[in-house]
Amino acid sequence: MTLSERDLKHNWHPYTQHKTAQKSIAITKGEGALLWDENNKEYIDAIASWWVNPYGHSNKFIADAIYKQLTTLEHVLFGGFTHTPAVELSEKLMEILPNNQQKLFFTDNGSTAVEVAIKVALQYFFNKGEKRTTIIAFENAFHGDTFAAMAASGISFFTEAFQGMLIDVIRIPVPVKGQEHISFQTLEEVIKNNNCAGFIFEPLIQGAAGMVMYEPVSLDELIRICQKNKVLTIADEVMTGFGKTGKNFACDYLSEKPDMMCVSKALTGGTIPMAITTFTQDIFDAFYDDDINKALFHGHTFTANPTGCAAALASLALLQTPEMQANIARVHQNHLAFQKHIESHPKVTTTRVLGVVFALEIKIESAESYYGTLRNKLYDFFIENGVVLRPVGNIVYILPPYVITDAQLQKVYEVVENALEIA
Predict the structure, then answer these.
(1) Is the pTM of this model over 0.85?
(2) 299 has binding-site annotation
């Protein structure tokens, strides 16, 4: 029995309708931008395994840091204790985070980082004696699968089974080109007519919506509106953080800074689950009180896991090397060249590039669902041709490890171009 067949017996996979899905591909090895399955077929991981592996699979530098930490201290509870890797990681992050961020809260993944941010936004006002219960989010947002994160997400089929059970969220349009003023006006109206605690957004790129991009000046204006009305702002940098946009964080493109940031995915280079929510001093101070009830009663068993912190420190060290920064710039230039080549293709409606993110929209006759026929046909074509890509409806995106070679990137581009013929 193959590994894929054995997997079917007990494992329930994410975002999968098992009755209609094919067997999962059993991966046995990874190195750099490459993966190999149980039959030794090679794949280029062109989405860095859901955006978490910017420095490549089986990265020896990160692995050595993890091993060294495991032989010193693998884990200790973070309630009432601390340790060297957590302190050092907080200090290193402060060097690259926007300078208004002063406090860090550790969790396990992007959803829980968002969960903490939303809870903090609501409790911030509760602690001050104000009742604010509404969260503002973008249309078609995706912030995760835990309850508050799911409530803030706007992709309906992910959340429709839970309607009526979620926190109060009001959505505003994304300020894409030509729609900026509608977004600004809607935000003003929502804040005027509701008791709004916070506004959460994916800065500059909406990942799960199909890499929808908008300009920094528009987000600056939305943040200014919130600041004027004392509504807290939350930047969900889970996807965009650590170099994906060409800067350390998408918020580095902004003149206005958010009150909170959520980071995960690339934080540990795709090795150990870890996430962090960051805060301004003002937010922390609203919880700093003689009254125990004003504390943030939230925690995870593996909060600030020392081994994860060691992996994150190694990942940050890699990110800041001239070689890795050059890789980010190289991938970006390759994307721009492919964009110029493919944008006039008769099957292509639009293309967009920011940092190491490339996306194109395939021209179709009628609306295509998230997991529709075209998407599945494209996915199967990519896998058949040795490239891991997960289209979003009729949108194909590439978000590769920074260490991908030019030759590997060219193969990805060729497979994407060939896939247009079957669309």
Answers:
(1) yes
(2) yes
Residue indicated by tokens 């809870």: 119
Q: Is 110 annotated as a binding residue?
A: yes
Token output for 72: 């010193």
Q: Is 50 one of the annotated binding-site residues?
A: yes
Structure tokens at 61: 């530098």
27 touches 51 (CB < 8 A)? no
**259 marked among binding-site residues:** no
Ramachandran quadrant class, 136 (left: phi over 0; alpha: psi -120 to 50; beta: rest):
beta
Question: Two tokens at 295?
Answer: 């504390």
Structure token pair of residue 127: 């602690």
**Residue 66: CA atoms inside 13 Å, Cβ hemisphere, count?**
17
CB 294 within 8 A of CB 287: yes
Compute the distance between CA of residue 341 and CA of residue 338 in angstroms, rounded to an integer: 5
Please count the residues of the chain.
423
Is 236 part of any known ligand binding site? Answer: yes
In this prediction, the residues of the chain whose per-residue pLDDT falls under 50 are none
Instruction: Please tell me whether residue 277 adopts helix, strand or coil conformation.
Output: strand
Q: What is the pLDDT of residue 368?
A: 65
390 is in an annotated binding site: yes
Please report, for the chain, the start and end positions of each structural domain, with discontinuous segments joined by +: 3-59+322-422, 64-319
Number of H helices, E strands in the chain: 14, 16
Bridge partners, residue 354, by sequence: 357
Structure tokens at 85: 């890797």
Residue indicated by tokens 């937010």: 283
Q: How far apart are CA 174 and CA 164, in angstroms?
A: 24
Give me the amino acid identity at 170.
I
DSSP, collapsed to helix, strand or coil, labels residue 416 as helix
Q: Is 380 annotated as a binding residue?
A: no
Is 268 annotated as a binding-site member?
no
User: H helices of 196-352, where?
Assistant: 216-228, 281-285, 306-319, 322-342
pLDDT in tens, 26-39: 999 999 999 999 99
Encoded tokens for 347 = 């099957």
Task: Please state which of the four CATH numbers 3.40.640.10, 3.30.1050.10, 2.40.30.10, 3.40.50.150 is assigned to the domain occupying 64-319.
Answer: 3.40.640.10
Structure tokens at 327: 């890789």
Q: Is residue 375 part of an annotated ligand binding site?
A: no
pLDDT at 365: 82
d(CA 275, CA 277): 7
CA atoms within 13 A on the CB side of 305: 19
**What is the topology classification, in CATH, of domain 3-59+322-422?**
Aspartate Aminotransferase, domain 1 (3.90.1150)
